C-alpha cells in the first residue's frame, strides 16, 4: 500500500521508506537511525520554535509528491541559460541531484576528487565526515534527507590543492509529475586547500512542481579557504529547503553568500557553522529580494565552540508586494570560546504594502571576554535620497532600482568573482525595473 | 523663462513663503540673499518640487508650463536644476551610473535616443575639466566620503552634464574654502551663456564677487523686500540686514 506523500511523512515512516527502499549502500544504519530520528522529532508545525513563522506543512500538502522520479532529459540549452556570462569556470551539472558528466566540465588533476556522492561512500573523507556536522541531528528535514537521499556531489581537495577556477554547480530540478527531490552533497577541503564554488538553481518553468530538500555538508580543514555562493533564482513551481552545514577547523576561512531572488514561492535556508578550531574567520552574507507572495526564510546558526574566532554575518532584504521574509540569527558562544568576535546585522527594505519581515536575533553567550553585537532595521527608502535622484530627472521607478542596487551593494561588492557580481547586479536591477 | 506670482508655501503648517513675485529672463543671473530663516532655501525646495512643502497660493510658470503641476523628475527634464545645499551621500550608487541614468532619462523624455557609451564618456571628460572634478571621484559612490568642497563641485559637475536652462544654486558657497569657492564659481561662470539662467541663493556676499549677478533680491520673512543690482549686495555686506528690516516696518506701519 502506498500512502499519499504527506500522510506517509506524518503517519507511516515505513510506508515512506517503502516508496524509496533504503539504498543498498553501506549507509543502512545511518539511514535507518535518521529515519527513526525524523519520526521522533516529527514535521515542524508553527509551534516548533525554529519554524514559528514558516508553515512548511502547507507546501508539503500542496501536491502528491513522489520520492522517485523518472529521469527527464535536460538539454545543453537549459544548462547554457544558467551560465554566468564571461566567466571561465568548471561546471558540474546535477539533475535532481544526479551528476550529469556529459553536461559537466569537471576539474581534474592531482589532489582533486570530484564525482557522484554515491560513488564515494567508501572514500576516507566520506567515512570520516559524512553526517558528522553536529547541528544536523536537530534538523528534521536534514534527517529525512539522510534517510532517503539518492545522490549528490562529492568533492574532496587534498592538502594544498587550490582550484584554479571557480566551480559552477548547476542544480537543475525537473520532473513530469510533482516530485520531492533530496540531493545530498559533501565537500571537503583539506589542509590549506582553497576553492570558490558557485551554486545556482535552475527549474525549467514548464515542468511539474518540484520540492527540493537538499543538504550540503562542507568541511573546511586547517588553514583552508572556501568561498561558497548560493544563488537561488528558482521558479513559480519550485519549493526549497536548503540546508548547509559546515565544519570549520583551525585558521580556516569560510565565506558563504546566499542570494534569493524571485520567484520561488517557498524558500527555507538553514545555514549552520560549527567551529572545530581556533583563529577562524567566517563571513555569512545574504541578500534576498522577494516579490508577489514569496516566502523567504533564512535560518542561521553560528556556533562559537572554540576561542579566538571571528564571525561576521550580514543579511539584507528587499521585500516587494506581499512578500514576507524571516531571518533568524542564532549565535552561541560557549564558555570556552573566549576572545570571540561575533557580529550580526539584518537590514530590510519593506517596499510592498503587505510586505512583512520577522527577524529574530538569538544570542547565547556563556564566555565573558567576547565582543558580540547584533542589529536589525526595517524601513523604506530615505526620502532625501529619493528626492535627490528625482531632482536629476530620474523617474521614481528608476530611482528605486538604483536605490535597491545601492542597498545590496554591501553584499554584492564583496562577491570576489567579478562576472558573478555583474550578473547579480544586473539581475537585481532587472527585477526592480520590471 | 520663469515667472513666480504671489507664491505662498508652508511646511508642517508653518507659513514660510508669503507672496513671492519674481521674473527671470533667459541669460540672467539673479542672486537671492537674506538672513537665516528668511525662506531662501524653501524657495529653492518649492521650485524643485520637494514634497514636504505645500503651495497654498500663487503660480510658477516655466517656459509656459505650470511648474507646480510637474513631478520633481519632470521639472528636471524640463530644464530646472537644483544644486543642493547639502548633497546626499548614496553609498552603492556610482557617480557614473547615476549620471548615465539621469542623462538618459532626460533624453528619453525629450524623445532622444540614449547616449552611446563613447559619447557619454567624451561628454564626461569634457565637463570634468570644466569644474576640475577628479576622475577618481567618478567611479566612487555618489558623494560618499566626499569632502564638502568635492560635494559642491560634484553638484556643479552634474549641472554641466545635465545642461539645464535654469540652475538654482542653494548656498553652494557655504562651508567652502576660498580655493574651492574659486573652482566652483569658475565652473558656473564657464556655463553662463545667453540661454541659461541662474538663481544664486547665498547668505554671504563673497560668492557674488566671483559670480556677478544681474539682479540682487533680498528675501525676508517669506517675501522679497528689496531688489537691486550687484551694488545692493555690497551694501548688505557693509550694513547688514537691519536697516532693511527697519525700512520695511516703517513702510508697513504707515
UniProtKB/TrEMBL annotation, chain A:
GO biological process terms held by the UniProt record: iron-sulfur cluster assembly
Span of domain SUF system FeS cluster assembly SufBD N-terminal: 24-168
Organism superkingdom: Bacteria
Pfam families reported for this sequence: SUFBD_core, SufBD_N
Family: Belongs to the iron-sulfur cluster assembly SufBD family.
Protein name per Swiss-Prot or TrEMBL: Iron-regulated ABC transporter permease protein SufD
SUF system FeS cluster assembly SufBD core domain ranges (all copies): 177-407
InterPro entries noted in UniProt: Fe-S_cluster_assembly_SufBD, SUF_FeS_clus_asmbl_SufBD_core, SUF_FeS_clus_asmbl_SufBD_sf, SUF_FeS_clus_asmbl_SufD, SufBD_N
PANTHER family: PROTEIN ABCI7, CHLOROPLASTIC (PTHR43575)
Organism ancestry: Bacteria, Pseudomonadati, Bacteroidota, Chitinophagia, Chitinophagales
TrEMBL record, chain B:
Domain ABC transporter: 2-246
Keywords: ATP-binding, Nucleotide-binding
Keyword tRNA-binding: no
Gene Ontology molecular function: ATP binding; ATP hydrolysis activity
Family membership: Belongs to the ABC transporter superfamily. Ycf16 family.
Protein name: Fe-S cluster assembly ATPase SufC
Native source organism of the sequence: Chitinophaga silvatica
